[in-house]
Every structure is written in C-alpha cells, then in structure tokens.
Amino acid sequence: VYYNAINGDLDAAYRAAKRGAERIPDPILAYYWGRSAGMHNRPREALEAYSRLDPRSPSMETLGLWRRLCFERGLALHALGEHRRELREALILRDWKPDWYGFLIVEMRARTALVHLDRVEELVEEAERKHGYGPDAAFWASRGLRAHGHRDAALEMANRELAYVEARPAEEHETVGYRQALFLALYNLEQWDDARAVAEGLVADPPSDPTLPYGRALYRLGSVAAFGGDAETARRISDQIAAIDIPFDMGESLTWRAGIAAILGDRERAVSLLRESHDHGWDFDHDVISFRAVLLSASCALPSARLQVPLAGQMDEGSKVLANHNHDVATTSAVA
C-alpha cells in the first residue's frame, strides 16, 4: 500500500488496501482501505471500511489513528450529504473527548451544512476561548457556509475572522503565519486588492526550498490577480506553479492551477486539471470562490456577477461535472 501510494499509483494502493482488509482483520489495513476509497471519491465504500473500526478502541489509540479516522469518516458523510448523521456522530465524539479541537471542527462542518448559524458562532467563540484558534475556526466556518450557499453569513463570519487576526499581538504582525492568516481573511471577505498586497509580500520572501509553501503562496497571488482582472499575471503564475517540482503533493498543485483557470473562466481546463488532481489523490474541497466557474457555468465564461455563490442545488449540479470521472458521485443523498 505504502509503496504504491508513494510512487503515485493510487489505483494499485487502493486495490492492495481493499484486498488486504478483506483477507486480514487488521485495523491499519481497514483504515487505509477507507482512506484510499475516499481519495478515489468512493465515500460510500469509505464508510464501509471505517465501520469496521471504533476510534475509542485501544488499538486505534495505540496506533494514533483515531483522530484521522473520525475526521475522515465525517468527511465521507459530508460528501454524501448525510449531515444530520454527521452531526450525531460529531456530538458523540465531542462527549468522548470534549477538549480536542478537531472534534469541534467536525461538529462545525456539519452545522454549517445544516445552517445552524447560532451554534456555529458559539463554536467559533469556543475555539478562540479554549484553544486560541478563533481565526482558524472562523476561516473554516466561513468557507463551509459559502460552500453551502450562504454568502451573507459567510461574509459575516469572515469579518469575525479578520477581527481575530488583527487582534493578534503586534510582534506577530510581520511573521509569515500572521500574514498568511491575514490573506485568508481578506480572501474570504473578497477584498482582492488588499489580499493581493499581502500575497505579493509572501511571494517576495520565498523559502530557501521553493516547493510546497512557495507554491501555495504563488497560488494565492494568482487567484487574487485573476479576481482583480489581471489575467496575464494569473496565467503567468499558473505556468510558474506548473514548473515547480513538488514531490508527493498528491495533486494539490494541480488544484491551484485549476482554481486559477476557473476564476478566469476556462472551464474545460479547470475540469481537466481537477480530474488530473483526483488521479493523484487530491480530495475536492470547499473552495467554491475559486471553483464557482466549474460548479455553475455550462460555458467557459464567468457570470457577470463575479461574486455570486452557488445555492445548494447548484452545488449538486456542479459536483456532477466530475461524474463521468468519479467512481462515486459526491452528491448521493443516502448512505446504504
């Protein structure tokens, strides 16, 4: 399983994990069967694999896989639209380990889909109060609300995200971590000019090894350049990303280029790059700001309302863009 995954043959890794889990009652094999099924857009099969595992069992504690198991099981339920079941399981997990921040995010992910706005706000406040992770929680809440078609609520949450970031101590304001958090807040607020200024600063100070962190910085700059109407810069940055050799990125850099193409209205290229990224193991995420052209448009042109966000039904249709490629369409509404 490891050999095939590391060498980029995810089909072989999936087959090996599934075959092993069917023959040997081993928790590691069952987990990697579920994980590889999820990476192949088979959330129903991922749940089948994960149902063999109890995150509270001594073996999962010893192996250190309980966190990832719970998070990825929730992702599978989310992909299938089983948000009430996702929430029920999240609440059980929070009762089990109430102080682990990850389970707070699992609960919040379900509640953003169910539009439990008051509870989402309480969870963000809890993240800041108990863990000091207010900006991170607000970021994910804003992105989740937007993905499920609630732009106004997403913008309100992004304002809270920005307030948390700006309240950080002054000595942090020149750090890379602070500037990255500031960019993400401005991005969620659709303040493209301000976000571009921050992104340009991050790109101007690249790491000595220009791989994954620098690639992410380039993508951020390329996306806001595209939103700002600077197509030439956006395309040049996409080409720069393609030229960077990023080992074992599981297709992430392809999603960056797909995002830039989607913003620019090149739907065919965006879909092609997304399909290629899936072949490398990247999971489709909630970055609907970048991918709204793929999700909504039947042509290559961006809608004139540049900041329009899809409603839930439109998201379902957008997911079907990949249906001919995916093995298990993410919009299936019931779990067997």
Largest sheet: none
Runs in which pLDDT lies below 50 for 5 or more consecutive residues are 292-336
Residue-averaged pLDDT: 81
Based on Cα principal axes, name the global outline. globular
Compute the number of helices. Answer: 19
* Helix-residue proportion: 55-70%
**What multimeric state do the chains show?**
single chain
- SSE arrangement, N to C: HHHHHHHHHHHHHHHHHHH
Q: Roughly how many Å apart are the termini?
A: 27 Å
**What is the gyration radius calculated from CA atoms?**
20 Å
**Number of DSSP strand runs:** 0
Strand content: under 5%
Please explain how this structure is put together.
This protein has 336 residues and is an all-alpha fold. It has helices spanning 2-6, 10-23, 27-39, 43-50, 58-63, 66-79, 83-96, 101-114, 117-131, 134-147, 151-166, 176-188, 192-204, 212-227, 231-243, 252-263, 267-279, 288-296, 312-319. 46% of the residues are buried. The model is unreliable at 292-336 (pLDDT under 50).
Topology:
Layout: H1 2-6, H2 10-23, H3 27-39, H4 43-50, H5 58-63, H6 66-79, H7 83-96, H8 101-114, H9 117-131, H10 134-147, H11 151-166, H12 176-188, H13 192-204, H14 212-227, H15 231-243, H16 252-263, H17 267-279, H18 288-296, H19 312-319
Helix pairs in contact: 2-3, 3-4, 4-6, 6-7, 6-8, 7-8, 8-9, 8-10, 9-10, 10-11, 10-12, 11-12, 12-13, 13-14, 14-15, 14-16, 15-16, 16-17, 16-18, 18-19
Short description:
The chain has 336 residues and is mainly α.
What are the defining features of this structure?
disordered C terminus, globular, 19 helices, 336 residues
